[in-house]
């Protein structure tokens, strides 16, 4: 179970080991004994959205470049037959969205019986209410080898406790790996919050875009702006409004046919259309290099969604800007937003601090939970109290607690702040289990020698 901030390079972190594993074991590209046409990949990567599946596929192909490893993609909204024909030629690593995968398995086009590497990207999203039944079906009822017989990797920038608990059903004896402050946004993103009433949002947005420059592009020609709204209808309406106001804008949401979605993304990515209005379909995983500004025209309900949305900028060591329109409807988010901004060294407007205080004990409670859940490599197996525990010595902690597998496996931080966020750059990792490289600037060069039974664990930051 691996957590690292948005834009820090998780795709490579799961693709490379799979490609390496397939190469090491020799690409067999097996077919099902009873049906020569059924593909039996050894690696499976699941993604919550079609666009993200395509992006992972493109990345995985690069990592497998000039090797015998074959990568394929299967996602809904695109012609079934075409994808099947590719699979029939043989595939080692299949990247898929859950719905299309289930369809392919049920039609005997794919079998999971040879899976050795199973990855869920955006795993917390994959295991929330929307996807969990499908994932359970894929993992538990579709011939996939059991958890001990395959390597299972779950990746996300956010990992709430309840989802971790659920995820452990799919894992056996696993390591929790955290790089950076889990669930937090990177301080490469400058976060601004403006108080804007619903009725003023359009004119506020237009002013903001005008101040950015011609056509709403940020700075240089390629500076792109991504505007998040709550609903599909809202996305279309705002796209129309922006077009009528003289901006080049395009909308992307789940009600558009796949070709339109892909066209929108292509035009935005290339800079031909510098403003994209999106629902949460574009909030996770998408890596669009020149997104300079993310605007939360409508704030999401959960702070984790906010973290993923603003994470479309400030990627791969670059800086970015995120602006949120906040009003009375967003009070329940105030406390978590204030905390998040403080943790990322952002200036919090005094009125927002007051909103957080006014929003009352309910959200304070939420915030406390979040704090306990978020930092210091917040492996839920450590228990809720761990965030406030002071670690006087690693051995006393190790003696006091043992998790799941019955092994002692800790990487105890020499010191933690009140969030349980380890201040140290790196520290011991024991034989198995929990590992936390707590500093985003963790030093790859100094991180050798973390002897784990899985081999050494490298934590690479941006410096
Ligand atoms: N070692 C590296 N050096 C430079 N760039 C890198 C490195 N690793 C990854 N990148 C680049 O960083 C960008 C972000 O990577 P990636 O999309 O994998 O992030 P992520 O952690 O999965 O983010 P998210 O949580 O938003 O899905 C990509 O453009 C990728 O090519």
UniProtKB/TrEMBL annotation:
InterPro entries: DEAD/DEAH_box_helicase_dom (IPR011545), Ded1/Dbp1_DEADc (IPR044763), Helicase_ATP-bd (IPR014001), Helicase_C-like (IPR001650), P-loop_NTPase (IPR027417). Residues 386-397 have a biased composition (Low complexity). GO terms for molecular function: ATP binding; hydrolase activity; RNA binding; RNA helicase activity. PROSITE patterns: HELICASE_ATP_BIND_1, HELICASE_CTER. Its EC number is 3.6.4.13. This is RNA helicase. It comes from Eucalyptus globulus. PANTHER family: ATP-DEPENDENT RNA HELICASE DBP3 (PTHR47958). Residues 1-177 form the Helicase ATP-binding domain. Residues 355-399, 444-463 are annotated as: Disordered. Residues 204-356 form the Helicase C-terminal domain. Keywords: ATP-binding, Helicase, Hydrolase, Nucleotide-binding, RNA-binding.
């Amino acid at each position: 179970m691996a957590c690292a901030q948005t834009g820090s390079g998780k795709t490579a972190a799961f693709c490379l080991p799979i490609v390496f594993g397939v190469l090491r074991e020799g690409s067999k590209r097996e077919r099902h004994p009873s049906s020569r046409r059924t593909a039996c990949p050894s690696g499976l990567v699941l993604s919550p959205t079609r666009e993200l599946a395509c992006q992972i596929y493109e990345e995985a192909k690069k990592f497998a470049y000039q090797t015998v490893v074959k990568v394929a993609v299967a996602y809904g909204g695109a012609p079934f037959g075409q994808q099947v024909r590719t699979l029939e030629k043989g595939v080692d690593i299949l990247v898929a969205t859950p719905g299309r995968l289930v369809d392919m398995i049920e039609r005997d086009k794919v079998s999971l019986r040879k899976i050795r590497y199973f990855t869920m990207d955006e795993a917390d999203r994959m295991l929330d209410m929307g996807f969990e039944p499908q994932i359970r079906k894929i993992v538990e009822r579709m011939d996939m080898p059991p958890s001990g017989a395959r390597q299972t990797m779950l990746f996300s920038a956010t990992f709430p406790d309840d989802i971790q608990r659920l995820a452990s059903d799919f894992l056996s004896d696993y390591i929790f790996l955290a790089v950076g402050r889990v669930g937090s946004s990177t301080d490469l993103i400058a976060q601004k919050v403006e108080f804007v009433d619903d009725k003023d949002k359009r004119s506020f947005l237009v002013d903001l875009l005008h101040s950015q420059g011609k056509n709403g592009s940020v700075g240089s020609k390629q500076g792109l702006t991504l505007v998040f709204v709550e609903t599909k209808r809202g996305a279309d309406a705002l796209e129309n409004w922006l077009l009528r106001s003289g901006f080049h804008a395009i909308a992307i949401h789940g009600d558009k046919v796949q070709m339109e979605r892909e066209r929108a993304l292509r035009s935005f990515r290339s800079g031909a259309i510098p403003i994209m209005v999106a629902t949460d379909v574009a909030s996770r995983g998408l890596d669009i290099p020149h997104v300079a500004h993310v605007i939360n025209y409508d704030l999401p309900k959960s702070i984790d969604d906010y973290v993923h949305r603003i994470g479309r900028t400030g990627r791969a060591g670059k800086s970015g800007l995120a602006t949120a329109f906040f009003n009375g409807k967003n009070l329940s988010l105030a406390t978590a937003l204030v905390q998040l901004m403080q943790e990322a060294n952002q200036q919090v407007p005094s009125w927002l601090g007051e909103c957080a205080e006014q929003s009352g004990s309910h959200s304070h409670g939420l915030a406390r939970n979040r704090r306990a859940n978020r930092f210091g490599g917040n492996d839920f197996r450590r228990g809720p109290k761990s965030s406030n525990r002071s670690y006087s010595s690693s051995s006393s902690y190790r003696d006091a607690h043992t998790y799941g597998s019955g092994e002692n496996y800790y990487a105890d931080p020499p010191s933690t702040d009140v969030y349980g966020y380890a201040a140290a750059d790196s520290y011991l990792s024991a034989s198995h289990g929990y590992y936390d490289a707590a500093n985003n600037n963790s030093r790859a060069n100094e991180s050798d020698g973390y002897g784990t039974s899985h081999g050494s664990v490298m934590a690479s930051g941006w410096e």
